Amino acid sequence: MHLLFYRIFLTLSLSFLFYSCQNTEKKERFYVVTTTGHIADLVRNVAGNKATVAPLMGAGVDPHLYKASLSDLKLLQSADIIFYNGLHLEGKMGEVFHKLSRTKKVFAVSDGIPRDSLLMVDEENHIPDPHIWFDVEVWQYCLDKVCKEMILADPENKEYYLANAAKYRKELNDLNILIKDKFQIIPRHERLLVTAHDAFGYFGRRYDVEVIGLQGISTLSEYGLNEITTLSRMLISRKVKAVFIETSVSEKAIQSVIEGCKQQGHLVKIGGSLYSDALGAANTPEGTYIGMQKANLKLITEGLK
Ligand SMILES: [Zn+2]
Predict the structure, then answer these.
(1) Which of 193, 185, 194 is nearest to 209 (CA)?
(2) How far apart are CA 56 and CA 14, in angstroms?
(3) Which segments of the chain have a pLDDT < 50?
(4) Domains within the chain, CATH numbers bracketed
(5) Ligand 1 center to 183 CA (angstroms)
(6) How many angstroms does the Cα of residue 17 sit away from the middle of ligand 1?
(7) pTM for the full model?
């Protein structure tokens, strides 16, 4: 009887011990909240199984206009680490990050980028273009920044984070070469990318593609008849066959340009819907940074042919 009791006691204690271990392990995973899906994907690649990563902005969400909801604020409050883009991409969340940074680890991934690698949209007032992820080389500075902050938060796993970052850097380098190679095939004067808003400046600079966005750097800015007329004339004179819409921006502006061209007898097609400020749906290839870059590359190079 005594032995049976002892056995039951032992089993119970062991399962309790096992449960507590599991529980501790669970708690040891960092809870990281990011703004965009691009940053969430970057953090997942560095943090691996050491963190649970939750982006606030899903597929098709425009970060320029995004306002944190009450449930977002709760998520942010419960985060161990917060990564955001910075450079005013999240134009309506500046105050939220400012407040949170008093008590939490809050980092802008763009802080890792050397000043001379930033693209200025307004040189005089030093206003940089926030769409940094479109230059795969510039994005690697953000990879370094995420890796650095993960190591500072969790020095015990330094080698793990460094190995993950090195592996991902190799994938990014391969992607960078792929994009360069694909554009090399298209004659230079035909490399004209017309999109709904100015998200592709870094892309154009790195991969030698002329880029025109109908709306300004932020989707907040207005587009007018003047811009539409100028752009229609340009498309006609350069015989451009395709323009592109974006998953996170209304296609109203770009439709006006197509209509403008049509009235003057020049047919322009929509080359497809590009991923600009948001990734594709989770659990699809376009739900990752590399996948969305590849999807864009395919649409742009096929549209411009
Ligand atoms: Zn944008």
Answers:
(1) 193
(2) 39
(3) 1, 14, 16-26
(4) 24-177 (3.40.50.1980), 180-304 (3.40.50.1980)
(5) 23
(6) 50
(7) 0.86
